[in-house]
Amino acid sequence: MMLNLILAAIQSILQVMVVVLFGFILTRAGYFSTDKQKWLSRLNLVFFTPCLLFSNIASVISFQQLLAYWPIPVFYMCFASLSFACAHIISRIFRLETAYRRFVLACVMFSNTNSLPIAVITSLAVSEAGKVLFWGADDNQQAVAARGISYALFYAIFGNLLRWSYGYSLLQRWEEDDEDDDTSTVADYTDRRDQLSSPRLEYGSMRSSSVTSSTASSMANVDTRRTSSVTLEGNQGHLTPITTKQKPNETTNLLSFPTLPSDDLEASSNNAATHEPKGTIPHTGYIVVRTAKKINKYMTPPLYAALLALVVGLIPPLKHLMFDKSSFLYPCLTSAIQNCGRAAVPLILVCLGAQLTDIYHSPQNNQVKYRPVATAISTRMFLMPLLVIPIVLTFVAYGEQWSAIAADPVFSVMMIILGCTPTAINLVQISQVTGCFENEMLRVLFWSYGVICVPIFTLIVFLALNIVDKFV
């Protein structure tokens, strides 16, 4: 049984790493330049990933499943809270900078809830080791795989909602990272301007070009964006606005959604603000448009897709119209969305392989901070399993009186797998779009999936199978 388990785990990991290898080969062959990688990642973010989220979420969610699967959101909130607390505690113990605390928090909170768990449960269902997952005498391998995928997708709904809102904001650049709350004068800013332009504040992989373009944009819109005063930097020879807005933190940012870094959207928002009527009572239409623009500023395309999927999935007529195979829209619209969604994960993995190639040959590797990388990997891969497995074991032993699915061996194994998986692969997609922590994120994913995942995850799955074999 142990040999079958090892083979199943290795096969599921190789499904991921082989596609990454394809990206590495394509980059070495000259098909993937840095600009093409950025363009493809952004296209994936605004189109293919929303298609994936919509098709996966809307097809599985319903009010009946919300009631029957109530332990899944409870487990997710429990694991997310533990990850949040552990990331903060460990980051402070290792005295990481504020920005790197956010990086570690994102890596620990948001794990792989799609590709790896589904690959593992599919491999286990058809292996000899998967016989312990049968629930009743009439169970079979296809039913085991179907239930495991259903649990994983339902769990991923909550992870995707939080990842593409709060997680996106964690991986953005915060200009106030090293500023005090009470610092707003020109003299204080002058004392800090060298620090703001130093590589230390770029946090390893924060692109200096993004800072330069941001400065140029600020200079072009200095009249409309100025909040207090400006100072002239001798080295740069341009005006830089001083902002005095309140410093955000992880808790307050959890209550709001981030924006996509789009200069066009920002410019249109500024123009709308410039033409705002003054001294008159706004019409209802204007209020609606202004409110919509404010909401749009805090949304992302994947988050729009997830929310739309919830609406479609929870309204039976809409779900029947979209996902019933006998309906008119299923073969022409729904199938098209599903086909586009299937391209999201391979594109992420190919871009990951391409980015690993660039980072490997980059002369700036010495700028990467390895302490945050090691902190994120150790917390995600070693500390979290020590907390997740006892929680699931307790539910297996005492939870059947509250929920029938506590008696399903597949459910217990999937909760352990989902709580112990490595960092989510699509976090590198977010880092690539925002331009922050790219190198660090790539190293986290490389070490997590390429080195640590096979032995550690094999042990985790083995423990999960033994738990359900003895207690379920």
UniProtKB/TrEMBL annotation:
Q: Where in the cell is it found?
A: Membrane
Q: Which GO terms describe its biological process?
A: transmembrane transport
**Region annotated Disordered, chain positions:** 197-251
Report TM segments. Answer: 6-31, 43-63, 69-91, 103-124, 144-164, 303-323, 381-398, 410-430, 442-468
Keyword Transport set for record: no
Instruction: List the InterPro entries hit by this protein, alphabetically.
Output: Mem_transp_PIN-like
Q: Which UniProt keywords apply?
A: Membrane, Transmembrane, Transmembrane helix
Q: Name one GO cellular component term.
A: membrane
The protein's name in its UniProt record: Auxin efflux carrier
Biased segments, Polar residues type: 227-251
Q: Which species does this protein come from?
A: Phascolomyces articulosus
Q: Does the keyword Ligase apply?
A: no
Output compositional bias ranges, type Low complexity: 205-220
Report membrane topology.
Answer: Multi-pass membrane protein
Where is it predominantly found? membrane
